[in-house]
Structures are given as structure tokens and as C-alpha cells.
Amino acid sequence: MAAKQDCHDIALPPLIKPITANEVDGFNEAKPSSKPSTVHPPSTSVFRIEATSMLKEEDGAQGTRSISINMPPSPVEAHLQNTKRVSFTSGDGEVDENGEEHEAKGARSHSQPMPKRNPVYDRRFDSFKTWSGKLDRQLSNLRGVPTQEEQPRPQEFENLPVHRYFDALEGPELDTLRAYEEIILPEDKQWPFLLRFPISSFSISLGVGSQAIMWKSLSSSAATSFLDVSPHINLILWLITAALTLTVAVVYAMKTIFYFEAVRREYYHPVRVNYFFAPWITLHFLALGVPPLIAQTLPQYLWYILMAPILCLDLKIYGQWMSGGQRRLSKVANPSNHLSVVGNFEGALLGASMGLKEGPIFFFAVGMAHYIVLFVTLYQRLPTNETLPKELHPVFFLFVAAPSVASTAWAKIQGSFDSGSRIAYFIALFLYVSLAVRVNFFRGFKFSLAWWSYTCPMTGVAITTIKYSRAVTCRATQILAVVLCIVATVTVAALLVNTVVHAVVLGDLFPNDMAIAISKRRPRQRWYHKKSGSSDSNIEHYLKYIDSDSDEKDVEASIHSSSPNSQD
Amino acid sequence: MEIQSSEKSCKDVALTVLTRTHAGYFRIALSLGWQALLWKILLKDSRMAFPLLTILWSFSLSILLLLSLLYLLRCIFFFDMIKDEFSHHVGVNYLFAPWISWLLILESAPFVTPSHASFVVLWWVLAVPVVVLDVKIYGQWFTKGKRFLTAVANPSSHLSVVGNLVGARAASKMGWREVSVFLFSLGMVHYLVLFVTLYQRFSGGDLLPVVLRPVLFLFFAAPSAASLAWYSISGRFDTGSKMMFFLSLFLFTSLICRPCLFKKAMRKFNIAWWAYSYPITILALASTRYAQEVNDGVAHAIRLFLLALSVLVIFGLLLFTAFHPNLLLDPTPSPTHHPTTFPTYLSAN
Fold first, then answer.
1. Whole-structure pTM value
2. Cβ within 8 Å, pair A372-B257
3. Both ends of chain A: CA-CA distance in Å?
4. How far apart are CA A196 and CA B179, in angstroms?
5. Residue to substitute from B158, B196, B303, interface A, most A β-carbons within 10 A
6. Alpha helices, DSSP H only, in A124-201?
7. Which residue in A has a C-alpha nearest to residue B89's C-alpha?
8. CA dihedral A122, A123, A127, A129 (to 10 degrees)
9. Where are the transmembrane segments (chain B) (predicted)?
């Protein structure tokens, strides 16, 4: 401790001094010697305790104050704090508005007793804002509201390596923080709404959109004409989907504009990245389920526009699988990856419905090749794969999505429901049944918005069954079609009720999104943590405990260990 | 004395050449062979191109003869080195390269048609070693032993798949349908397994040293070869061939969008650079067949682009190789054939 103190003293002007509340007034004066500075490095729990206690005294910090000593955990950190300001826990706007320049080179007074929290500018979220809040300040400048001074961009937010996500998070959707981990945003406060709005919110429109298509098929297919379903249901559902999609898209666009860092972190999250396909799949659903009243045929250039983002995402994600490095498939494979495959198949289906020939085959081929790889990998349930939940979770229903959409797409491409389509359909049916008989194991999970995307496979199987019963019309297939449609509708209704309850009654539809706030480094105190998360080991060593710090060392290719900055 | 010293230096040169000519050098022959085949198919109907084709083919043949001779001498005098190559996970796949090259030369010969007796005989002479190697290597993949698939899989393993597919294509040209389908299914099944394994990438580090990154181009060589083989078997460029071609196109795009992968390998000229050439040529050939089938603007644009790229690359490589004669003749001793330095050995510089 003494050594560190010395170190710190050498690095910074002497800042360490016990303060009492009385000295708060002299706080901003240019007296380096009198400034305590408690910097909040992102991952030290020691300081969080202090910070929390300080937070509690918001009203002018007149309470008794204990010593707030800045003790960086290592000289390196001290140096870091010198050169970069970790700004997200900086003092208030109030402090800075005085315009005082702190001469301590870079080390600002952070988390000093906060006299008054400016309700508008809580700077703790600045690091997540686009350009560290510069855009915010520009906008508030335009509005004529006084702003704070500029802050240097925190350089901590480089590529967050994927093993950090596995280390820090757990759960089938990798959204629960592990007990020993710290996050860089305040845990106790509710974050701004935009920060809490995950990309998986697009799943709602996925779920409702697939329902719209299902009701369209029910009303228009010859096999189910005995049901006499009104086409108005399709119209209503389609309009709801369109409205929902627009809303979610606008909100997420705002999040991208204002909190780009948060969006980046979602993109690097191994599960959430697949939801970046969701907006485009929803647009596909809208195009596929468009009621005849609105449009009979759609222009072909629309397909190219819709598929361009999917192609880019494909190149990025599948390329990462192929070129290895940190994000290779055996490490990041999880059932949500099916969404990327479904995106390709849906695109093929849409293109074939529009009358295109070559493009749909292209996307079908790409989707099929990567689906085979993914399917084998997930079925293997590799020990090196962390994200497959040991118990069943609704995410498993995504297994059913890919073969059913592939079946429909192939039928559309070929023009008839031939053997290839039937093979895919039967696989989908088998997987569905093997999950449905285990419905008891799906209990006890925390509700999340992503559950909406799991209804889309059920609806998908129902739609494919309708198409199948068109090809093979008999009592059994018709009954099957009706039963599956009922199940899908009931599930969606139940989910809707659940969502409304969480939104209105419980108020926790959008909880603090822990997954995007994980720190870049592990917390220092490792002795009390549980077994570490990801281990990047050889299969033969998977049973041994491996310190994840050494996960970059590869046993097999000892000459060529992958560097932490390897191709991502 | 002078004569002695010059004799000695001659011997030294010969020794160096033989020790350095490993199977990876057949990449040159592969590239030239595929180019010859490509131009033969493109200019099939044009009489006037016959001399050009003959020149190209003769050039390829001479290079291949030279390389085969050198490799034969190496087999005779330095059999240990061959054994080393065989036991190395990258080197073993290049043992297919000579047979593939000869098959290509055979197919692209301007004056030999597949119905010739000599074609048939030569096909058997070339295909049997491919099958023997298959049995040995694929058998190792799934049976007990140290060289199971997850331990040895690397992008150059695609070369074994390409070997089967080229054999299948040649067989179907001869009209031997069953043999052709046999080789095709053999290749495709192992391609499926290899594809999944390589995508999964169990072990953290790449089994491929950085210098050999150009071999990643083989990722899209295999599906293009499959597309061509299926085209020959089924008679037209149907949906199956199209799907393989599209997959290959996608993988190609995915690789060229990642130039950083190849940055380190491009620092110094290297025999491994020749691995860029023949996958592009195979893809160009597949795109030619595709454009013939579909016959629209986009297909022709893709075809022209790939053709231009393939010609550019091979010309560039020929020039580079011409300006680096030390590839074969440098008297400085090459890294020894110690197994741990074998990766650098395969890249020959």
C-alpha cells in the first residue's frame, strides 16, 4: 500500500488528503494539494463502496465524510488515470460549470462529494453517448442550455474482446452479470431509457409479423379454406406489425444516434449480434405478409435493398467464424445464431415469391452451408461452448425455425413442395415435437423481450404445415395445420399478456441492460469469485480448471499462439 | 582445381535445388494447368486460338515435367524428406498436387480427346494414387491414432477434396459415370466434414502458420471444383451446381473483404503466393459455365471480372517468380528439414 501510495505520489501532484465536508467549498480552487480525487476505474469494487456511500449523500454532502483516498490498484492504472480521464463518474455539471481547469494532468476530481446532481446532465452515462456526449452538448448548445466543457474521449472503449462477455455474463441469453463482476454504469439507478432498450426489442415485431403471415396463409390457402378465415385478420395484424416495427426502429435509431457506444457493445455481444438481423427479417415478414388490399406485387428492386444489409452482416459474421480468432464458431455458437441463417432463408423465400431466380438460390446456398455447420456444432454441445444453457430455455425453439423456413423457401424456389422441402419440413417437425414434449423444462426463466423471437419458429412450422397440407391434402395434415396454428396463436397471446403485465404492472419490461455495461478488465479481487467463465482450451483439457487469463495460450499450436488482437 | 571447384558448386546447386523442391512447388503447375484448362474451354470453338492454346499448354507441360523430374530425383535421393512431408499436416495434402496437375494437363491437352485410349490409360495411372492417398489420409481422420481430423484439419486439406473432384470430372468426360459419381461422393462427404470442422475451429491458434495464409483461398476452390464436377456429371449447370458456385462466390467475397488476414504473408515473396492463383482460376471457370447457363448481364460481369483477375494474378506471379530465381537456386542453405521448422520449409524461403 505504501509503495503504491508513493507511486501515486510520484505520478500525480499530491492529491491525497483526508477531507471533511467543510472543505468542499474550497474544492474547486486551483490548489492541487487540497484536492482529493477518487477516480473510478471501471473495475475496482473497493471504490464502488466508497462511491455508493457518497452517492447516498446527494444533498450537499454535509454529512460526515470519511476519508476518500485515491488508491489506484497499480502504477499502471495511475498512469492511465493520468493520461486518460475516465469520465463516466465525474463530478457533476455543477462542478464543471465553474470552468475551472484542473491542473492535475488528466486526473480530475471525480466522485467528490456531489453537492447537487444536475437532473439533466448525469455524466455517468457520457461514456456511452455518441462521441462521449459531444452530440448531446451540441444539441443542448443549439437549444441554448449551458453546457459543460469538453472531455477527452475515454480510450477504454476499444474492441471489447469476446472472452470478456463470456467471463462477465452468464445465462442462456448472456445477459445476467456474474456475481463477482462489476459494471461501469451505476447499478442502483435506472439508466436512461435508450440505454435500456436492447436490440432484441425487434423480436416483438418478429413475433407479430410471423402471425400476420400465418393468418394470410390460413385465409388464402386452398387446404384451409374449410375454416373460412377472414382476410381482415391478416390486415389488422399487418398494420400492427408495421406500426410496431416503425416504433422500435425509430427508438433504436435514436439509440444509435445518441448512445452509439452502447450499440457497438451490443454488436460485439455474441448473442445480441444475431438480433441485428431481426429488423431486416421483420421487413421481410412485412413484405411476405402484405395484405392483398395494400399491394398485390412488390417491385423487385425492393428485394435487393432488403438483402444488402443481410449480405453485409453475413460476410461479417460468417467470415469471423471462418477466419478464426476470438470469435470462432466453437466458442461463440449459440442457438440465437439461427437467426442469421433464418435471415438468409427468409430472403430466399421473399425473392422467390417476387419471381427472382438466381438471387434466392444464392442466399439459400449460403444459408444452407452455414446452417449445416451451425447445426452440427450446436448438436455437439461442445464442452468449450459456454452459451448453451444446461436446462432448456425458450431459445431452443430457434432450432425449429431454420429447417421450416428452408423448407418453405425451397418449395417456392422449386415451384412445388418436393422431396427436398419435405425432408426439411419433417426435420423441423421432429425437432418441434421433441421440444414440445419437454415443455415442463421450460419453466422458471426470467421473462425477456427476446422470448418474442421464439414464437416465430412455432408460427413458421404452422405456415409450412399449411403449405404441406396444400401439397398433401388429407384429414391428418389439415388437422395438424389447425392444431399448430392454434398453438402458435395461443403462445403469442400468452406472451402478449406477459409483456403487458411486465410493462404496465411490474414496470420492468426494460431492465438495466447489464450485458452492455461490462468492464474491459476483470475486477482485481479474484479470490472470492467462482470458477471462471470461458476457457479457450483444447478439448482434452476441458475438464481441468483453467485460469481464463491464460486462455490465449494455445496448447496445440505452441509456436503460433493467437494474439489477443488477432483477426476478429 | 578450377574444374573441381566448379564441379563442386554444380553439385551444391543441384543439392540445394533438390532439397528445396518440396511438393508445395507444384502449386505453380496447378495454376498453369488450371489456366490452360480455362482457356481451352473458353476458346473451344475458335480455331484461330489453337496456336495460343498449344503454346500455353506446352509451357505448362514443360514446367510440370521439370517439377516432376526434380521431385522424382528428390524421392530417390532424399526419401527422408518425403517422409517428413507426409507426416506434416500441411505437407501431406500437397502430395495430391502432382496428380492433380497431371490430370489437368491431360484434360487440357489440345489434341487429346477423352475418348482416346491414351486418355483412359493415363487417367487410371493418375487416379489410382489419388484414391490410395485418400484411403490413407481419410482413414486416419476417423480411426484411432494421432492424426485424427480435429488435430490435423487445416485449409490445405481442401486439396485432397479437389483431387477427388478433378478425378470425378475427368472420369465423367470419359463417359464413366459410376466411377465419376464414386469419386464425387467421396470428395463431397469429406468436404462436408472438413467444412464443418474448419468452421468450428476447435483449437485456438491456427494450424496454419501465418506465412501460409494464401492457402485460405482453398476454402472457395473446393466448392467451385464441386460445381464443375457436378456440371460434368449431370450435364447442365443445374441448381446443385449453382448452389456450390454461389457458396464459392460468397467465400471468395468474404476472404477478399479481409485483406488484413493476408498482410503478414505478403511481406516477402514466397512460393505460397502461388496458392492465390488456382482457386481464382477454378472460380473463373465455374463462373464461365454459370454465365453460359444463365446468360444475363450480372453473370457475364462476374465472369469477366474473375477472368481478368485470374489472368492478372498469374501474370503477376510469373513475373515475381522470374525475378526471384533464388527460389530454387539460392546457394544459402535452406532451413533444415527439422520437423518443427517445417512450416517455413513449405514456404520455401
1. 0.74
2. no
3. 39
4. 61
5. B196
6. 134-143, 162-168, 193-196
7. A557
8. 50
9. 24-42, 48-73, 94-113, 119-139, 179-199, 211-231, 243-261, 273-292, 304-323
